[in-house]
Amino acid sequence: MADFQKQLLQSPSGFPELGPAEAIELRRMLEIIRKHFELAGYVPIETSLVERSEVLFAKSEGEIRNQVYGLRLLNPTPGAPTDEKDLALRYDQTMPLARFVAANQGSLVFPFRRYVIGPVFRGERPKDGRYRQFTQADIDVIGDGNLSVLHDAEMVAIIAGIFTELAIGPFTIRIGHRKILQGLFQSVGIEKEELVAHALRIVDRLEKDGLARTREALESIGVNTSAIDTLLKLFTEERPTDETLEHLSQMEGNEVFRAGVSDLREVVAAVRDLKVPEKRFRVDVSIARGLDYYTGTVYETRFDDHPNIGSIASGGRFENLASVFTNRKLPGVGISIGVTRLLLRLIKAGLLPAKATTLSSVLVTTPEIAEYRASYLAYAASLRAAGIPAEIYLESRPLNKQMSFANRRGFRIVVIATHEHMRTNMVVVRNLLTGDQQEVMEDRLIETVRSMLDEKS
Q1: What distances in angstroms separate CA 235 from CA 141, 227, 285, 291, one per listed residue?
Q2: What are the structural domains of the chain?
Q3: Is 141 exposed, middle or buried (0-12, 13-18, 19+ CB in 10 A)?
């Protein structure tokens, strides 16, 4: 019975729970992400957690189909909905976007820039950094008929802005192009659409599978040994961006390959125009992205010093994702950040210490609450009215217990007023990070707290 009760107290495997410290850090990350999305002109929309399975499968093959959670009533009653067998939890934010745009194309103004931040669900085997539920932050821009590749470059600038402000560590945004890979495989005899898609998935797994398994996989679909040697050398050689572009320009290739190289040149030029530091991006031909709906520029971002954390932001261009819903051509490009996955891996790696368990900056202590309750409550009310988040300790406890509480919760400032202070209308404002404190008149409480909060600790 004890083991059963213990199991009931745990959340289901792969569905993480966040305590206050982790949830506060998640909120901070999301605020920075949302800020940069909106700085670039993206507007929020909300789509349903639940989609018809046909929507989620419309542009997906293989692995995705095996990871979608179906939705059904466990104990249906008479008159209950009858379409539950066709419903599923969303796997990502992209297919719901395609349906939303197709459904609302008559009222949207194109190019349409949107962002969505919310949970997605994947039936993956839970392990480090992989969860069945996680918060995903997405932006996409959708065009009507055409969409300039300059939008592709702007995605790089947005990623760079977000991770620069998050200040977790140096990172590199790797930029590839699906047409380059498609052209390369077509030139070595892999021409059938399904074989090209298979080849792209093999390349996408190169870092996970290693050279030997990748070689075997390419041989299994008919790529000859000489061509494999050439391809693997191209995929694994790390060169400066301009050198890579020049090398690609001098390679023989078909029309698809040349179109990809041309696009990539324009994207890189625009990335530089957007003032993205050179050290923050590079061209990497091996970036393929496994999802079948990508057709052009693709991105993958990793921390330079901690590549084992994996991709921290990825995405790419799709030429007509909504084709299954409408005859209107609606090309787009977007990026996605699996925020919960990233947060928990950063905490585990010690790169993001989540310590504070309060959103308030100030704790108003109440050492004489029975006698001076009205004054303590007034202090808290005044701080809040001034826009300063303040918590008040409402239990009757000794001051030393309240100070221990303040330190454990991570408050920066405490306000203390004992019986002696109250007799002279004074309060003590103490900075817990530095140990500095000031004894001031009550009417100077707000300015003193604000001054301490402005100090760099």
Answers
A1: 29, 12, 6, 19
A2: 13-72+82-348 (3.30.930.10), 362-454 (3.40.50.800)
A3: buried
CB of 102 closer than 8 Å to CB of 51: no
Cα separation, 231 vs 242, in Å, equals 19
Report how far residue 400's alpha carbon sits from residue 391's, in angstroms, rounded to the nearest whole number.
Answer: 17
Q: Which helix (H) or strand (E) holds 431?
A: strand 426-431
Residue by residue, DSSP assigns 109-151 as PSSEEEEEEEEEE--PPPBTTB-SEEEEEEEEEE-SS---THH
What is the C-alpha separation between 8 and 105, in angstroms, rounded?
Answer: 46
Give residue-wise pLDDT tens across range 447-456. 999 999 988 6
How far is 217 from 241, CA to CA, in rounded Å?
28
Structure tokens at 219: 């041989």
Rounded to an integer, what distance in angstroms lies between the CA atom of residue 47 and that of residue 136?
13
Is the peptide bond prior to 307 cis by the omega test (within 30 degrees of 0)? Answer: no
Query: In whole angstroms, what is the distance from residue 440 CA to residue 189 CA?
Result: 81
What is the dihedral angle through the alpha carbons of 326, 331, 334, 340, rounded to the nearest 10 degrees?
20
Note the pTM of the prediction, 2 decimals.
0.89
Measuring CA to CA, which residue among 199, 161, 168, 160 is closest to residue 183?
199
- The DSSP element (H or E) to which 303 belongs, if any, is strand 297-303
Segment 352-403, tens digit of pLDDT:
877 778 888 999 999 999 999 999 999 999 999 999 999 999 999 999 999 9
Tell me the per-residue pLDDT of 205-244, one tens digit each, with 9 for 90 and over: 888 888 999 898 888 888 888 888 888 999 888 899 999 9
Phi first, then psi: give them for residue 275, nearest 5 degrees: 65, 30
Q: E strands of 305-389, at which residues?
A: 313-318, 332-338, 362-364
* pLDDT 10s digits, 47-95: 999 998 888 887 665 566 788 888 887 787 887 776 667 889 998 898 8
Q: Secondary structure of the chain: what % helix, strand, coil (to 5)?
A: 45, 20, 35
Other residues' Cβ atoms within 10 Å of the Cβ of residue 237: 12
